[in-house]
Amino acid sequence: MTGAGTDALLEVEGLAVEFATAQGWARVVDDVSFTIGHGETLGLLGESGCGKSVTSLAVMGLLPPRSSRIAAGSIRLAGRELRGLSESQLSDVRGNLVSMIFQEPMTSLDPAFRVGEQISSVLRRHRGTSRSGARERAVELLDLVGIPDAAQRVDDYPHTFSGGMRQRVMIAIALACEPDLLIADEPTTALDVTVQKQILELLADLQDRLGMGVLFVTHDMGVISQISDRVVVMYAGQVVEQASTEEVFWHPQHPYTEGLLACLPAEHGRERLRGIPGLVPGPLDLPGGCRFHPRCHHARAGLCDVTPPGLDEVHSGHRARCLLARDLELRGIS
Amino acid sequence: MIRMVARRLLALVPLVFLVTLLVWGLVLVIPGDQALAIAGDSATPEQVEAIREDLGLDDPVPVRYGRWLAAAVQGDLGTSLYTSYSVTDALADRLPVTLSLVFVSFALAVVVGTAIGMLAANQKGRLTDRLLTVTTSVGLAVPNFWLGLLLVTFFALKLEWFPSGGYVPFTEDPAGWLRSITLPAVTLATAVAAELARQMRASMSDVLERDFIRTHRAKGLRPATIVRRYALKNAAMPVITVAGLQIARLFGLATIVEIIFNLNGVGALAVDAVFDRDIPVIQGCVLLITVIVLLVNLVVDVSYGLVNPKVRAQ
């Protein structure tokens, strides 16, 4: 049963993820919905602990099996429900139709195996490629992600690669089976700014060539503005704003997004960097009403601390979880 | 790789030299007069003096050591004071027994210990893990002479599956060899298997938490492949070091097991020699075991390099 008329690549609907704690199950992702079209890049934005990585791991089916569970919702890939698939069915999807690259390139590659082996193992697993065929393809892939002397480097071990080069190897592994969807979880956070730019350019270029959809998870507004078509902003486990990248940057409709934008250093500004006061609440001590109200300087007593807001459409294609969205004049970037 | 082995072999030379000094030094430290020991209680002082002359015991210490070392380098470790057999021949006779025992035990301990450790790490915190942890604690705590007697009583005397003692050379009867070595090897392997299981459990559960395991899962590799191929190679690195030390321990523990199972190995020979104050035999046994342990450590270091690419590169 697919949604009538949808041709979305990935549809996440009403996703709720819970983790086991001493006080019972804590809901760390609550009612999260978004879609990604073929060839589209969706930016998933939020501070540490807002649930963005958990959301992406849920899509991959990589949540820790005993200490976490998907409590509600559905995850459909090209119309096929992934929630409830067995581990073995999921492993047929992972690395094949959906791939993932991670935040820590220094530790994400296996130190005991040659990079060529780590790439060709995916091909042998999903494509049944022969050993020599997979090796040839590994060289091609290393070349594709811009590793010089790929034919020699294929036999090297990860410790001989720099952080940026290791992330390129990770990308080669992820793209080996030409997946429909690539999930990139903070892929540039651990890298130098110059290397960061190269990796972003590489991802954008490969996406153009291969036409895959990308879920780009980050806390970095600057990175989001460069790479994504649409943005989903998460706060305390919920989606608080969802719109095209331009809309979010020029006309934010949620005070949290406004706060994040204010954290960006202005191009020629001498203004001091601003932050958002306070911390993201943990899943076990969420405030009543709007989850953001204790940190929001627009919050109205008697309203925001009482009524939980829904994720409503403010105008076409632009949703925000704020009771005051229609009343507030929020500042985007100028 | 070959250069590394050559360099390590070269480094063994001064070490072995040092060992010969210590081994030979035994003569000077052990109380009692060798000549008197050989001559017996009823000998006249002249007879004792003749024996002393004969053995060159009155020469200066460096000369005596030099004479011994020159002979040892040529494979002559002297003559037993009691049986007048050549020590080298006695060792050559006994060595296959000890080597069979130690290496079969070691292989058994590695296979069983690794399997238990991997299983426990995979089931960490669950019932299987807890049962295996209790089992390995018992394995570590049981004294091997007691375990040996227990195995003999049950499997040799009651069920009569295995002989209760004695050694059948492999070249004579391979099946008989295996039967004669099984109970001693199990006895000797138990403590080491338990130790390796604990090390493997710790190492494997650490490896399974690492980021690259998540990468392998994200690639869609099957859980069994991830554990057996990728995690095992990573987890093996610290365990190999421990395993190397265990081989030295096995040679020590083998002595007791050889006596329990009436195996005429180097350990049993050494014990007899100690009771008899048969110094050339003691020297020969200690020197042989030391050299074997040093060589085994070299093999361990080389195999460590095989699994750890960072070591190999140096």
Q: In summary, what is this structure?
A:
The complex is a heterodimer of chains A (334) and B (314). Chain A has 334 residues and is an alpha/beta fold. Chain A has helices spanning 52-60, 87-93, 105-108, 115-126, 131-144, 150-153, 163-175, 193-210, 221-227, 245-250, 255-263; strands at 10-21, 24-36, 41-45, 68-77, 80-81, 98-101, 181-185, 213-218, 230-235, 238-244, 312-315, 318-320.
Give structural attributes.
heterodimer; A: 334 residues; alpha/beta; eight-stranded mixed β-sheet; four-stranded antiparallel β-sheet; 11 helices; 12 strands; 31% helix; 23% strand; globular; B: 314 residues; mainly alpha; 13 helices; cell membrane (chain A); nucleotide-binding (chain A); ATP hydrolysis activity (chain A); ABC_transporter-like_CS (chain A)
Outline the secondary-structure elements.
The complex is a heterodimer of chains A (334) and B (314).
Chain A: E1 10-21, E2 24-36, E3 41-45, H1 52-60, E4 68-77, E5 80-81, H2 87-93, E6 98-101, H3 105-108, H4 115-126, H5 131-144, H6 150-153, H7 163-175, E7 181-185, H8 193-210, E8 213-218, H9 221-227, E9 230-235, E10 238-244, H10 245-250, H11 255-263, E11 312-315, E12 318-320
Helix pairs in contact in A: 4-5, 4-7, 5-7, 7-8
Chain B: H1 2-29, H2 34-39, H3 45-55, H4 61-73, H5 87-122, H6 127-141, H7 144-158, H8 174-208, H9 211-218, H10 223-260, H11 266-276, H12 279-307, H13 309-312
Helix pairs in contact in B: 1-12, 5-6, 5-8, 5-10, 6-8, 7-8, 7-10, 8-10, 10-11, 10-12, 11-12
Pfam families (chain B): BPD_transp_1, BPD_transp_1_N
Family (chain B): Belongs to the binding-protein-dependent transport system permease family.
Transmembrane segments (chain B): 97-119, 131-157, 177-197, 235-261, 281-307
